[in-house]
Amino acid sequence: MNTAVRLGATAVSNSYGGGESSAETSYDSYYNHPGVAITVSSGDSGYGVEYPAASRYVTAVGGTSLRTSSTTRGWTETAWNGAGSGCSAYEAKPSWQHDTSCTRRTVADVSAVADPATGVAVYDTYGESGWLVFGLAPASRRRSSPRCTPWPATSAARACRRRWRTRTPRRCST
User: Fold this and answer.
1) Measured in whole angstroms, how far is the alpha carbon of residue 92 from the centre of its chain?
2) Pick from 49, 108, 110, 156: most CB atoms within 10 A?
3) Rounded to an integer, what distance in angstroms lies between the CA atom of residue 62 and that of residue 82?
4) Average pLDDT, stretch 118-132?
5) Residues 6+ apart with CB under 8 A from 106
6) Residues with Cβ within 8 Å of residue 69, at least 6 apart in sequence
7) For the residues 129-144, what does the mean pLDDT come to?
8) What is the mean pLDDT of the chain?
9) Dist CA 63 CA 44 (whole Å)
């Protein structure tokens, strides 16, 4: 973390985490970089808090599930039951958190589509026109779920899209 910031990073994304421990606050200094956006996955094992998502110096990113619907928006988004969340056992509540449910740090701060079974909506204007759904983890986290990138517009990317839409269980990399 410190090296990335020292080399000029203005945003750092982390997809690792582990169980909380009484020693975790001693590691908070690695995440304390005012002016640098540091995002951390809240975890993908369901309810419970992981570190470093519990650190007050990061934005803990939870997960949602995205499904098509007949609403005007065309999609419904709900909390994903695999996303980590809860009350930290060790980290003090930051001054900007005002909920009364947790006496210490509350996780998560924001959420983005993370459910590997539902993916994200992408509007395709190259080749196949219209809305498509791809199995992606949010930008703030990575894991081994299938992922497809609709750009660049190459034959490999198009093949990746076709495989994902037919649910062929293969990881796509373009």
Assistant:
1) 23
2) 49
3) 9
4) 77
5) 86, 87, 88, 93, 97, 99
6) 75, 76
7) 53
8) 79
9) 8
DSSP codes joined into one string, the chain: -HHHHHTT-SEEEE---EE--TTGGGGGGGG--TTSEEEEE--SSSSB-EETTT-TTSEEEEEEEEEE-SSSSSEEEEE-TTS-BEEEEEEEPPTT---SS-SEEEE-SEEEE--TTT-EEEEE-SSS-EEEEE----TT---SS------S--HHHHHHHHHHHTT-------
- The answer, yes or no, to whether residue 2 has pLDDT greater than 60, is yes
> Residue 135 has what pLDDT?
55
Residues in the chain: 174
**Cβ atoms of residues 27 and 94 within 8 Å:** no
- The residue written with tokens 């062929």 in the block is 168
